[in-house]
Amino acid sequence: MKEKLLVLVIALAFALFSLPPVPCKAQAPQSSSYQIGPNDVLSIHVWKEEELSRDVVVTPDGKISFPLIGEMVAEGKTVMELKKSISDKLLNYITAPEVTVIVKESRSRVIYTIGKVKNPGPQRLTADMTVIHALSGAGGFDQWADVKNILIIRRSGGKETKLKFNYKEFTDGENLEQNIVLNPGDSIVVP
Q1: How far apart are CA 68 and CA 46, in angstroms?
Q2: Where in the chain is CATH 3.30.1950.10?
Q3: CB 3.0-4.6 Å disulfide test: which of 10, 140, 161, 167 passes with 147?
C-alpha cells in the first residue's frame, strides 16, 4: 500500500513539474494597430548592425533613446510607424537600413482592480476588455463585496471621471451599457 502511494505521489509531482510555466509578464500584443505606450519593452534590430540592435524601454514620457538618433517619441506610434521613423533617421548614417521593431513586453496596457475581489492588482488589458471581463480576471468578489456600487476611475486629460457599475443590475439584464470597454490605466474599485 505504501509503495503504491509513493508511486502515486512521485507521478503527481512529475506531472505538476512538467506543466508549462504560467507567464507572469504581460505578453506582447498581437494587433498591428497596437499603440506603443510608456514602460513597453521594445526589441529593435538593425540588420547587419549588431551594435545598434538592442532592447529598449519606453520612458514614462513616451520616448526611447537609440544610438545615432538620440531621443525620439515612441508613445502613440504603431510598430510600423516607429520602424519607419527609426529607418528614416538612420538613413543619415547607414545606407538602406533594415529595421525590425517588436513589442517584446506590453507594460503600458494595464488596468487595476482593487477592493473586495479575490485577486486585486494589475491586469493586462486585452482588446475589447470590459468591466465584467476584468472582474472575472480578478477572481470574482469577496464575500462582503458591495456589488451594486462598483466604481471605474478613468483618468483622461489630467482629470478623473467616476463611472458606476452595478453588477446586480447587469446580471439581471438591466443597464447593460454600463459594462463599458476599459481603457489603459482604468481602476475598478469594488467596495
Answers
A1: 12
A2: 41-105
A3: 167
Fold (topology level) of 41-105:
wza like fold (3.30.1950)
Give me the residues paired with residue 152 across strands. 163, 188
**Domain 110-190 CATH class label:** alpha beta
- Please state, in angstroms and rounded to a whole number, the distance separating the CA atoms of residues 86 and 65: 11
Does the pLDDT at position 25 exceed 50? Answer: no
Determine the residue type at 93: Y
Cell 488589458 locates to 125
d(CA 42, CA 111): 20
23 CB-near residues (< 8 Å, 6+ apart): none
Residues in Cβ contact with 134 at an 8 Å cutoff, skipping those fewer than 6 apart: 111, 113, 123, 182, 188
Nearest to 184 by CA among 32, 40, 19, 5: 40
Q: What is the C-alpha to C-alpha distance for residues 123 and 111, in angstroms, rounded to an integer?
A: 5
CA distance 77 to 29: 14
CA–CA separation, 144 and 74 (whole Å): 43
Exposed, middle or buried, 138 (CB in 10 Å: 0-12/13-18/19+)? Answer: buried
- Write out pLDDT tens, residues 97-145: 999 999 999 888 899 999 999 999 999 998 899 999 999 999 999 999 9
What is the CB neighbour count within 10 angstroms for residue 29? 21
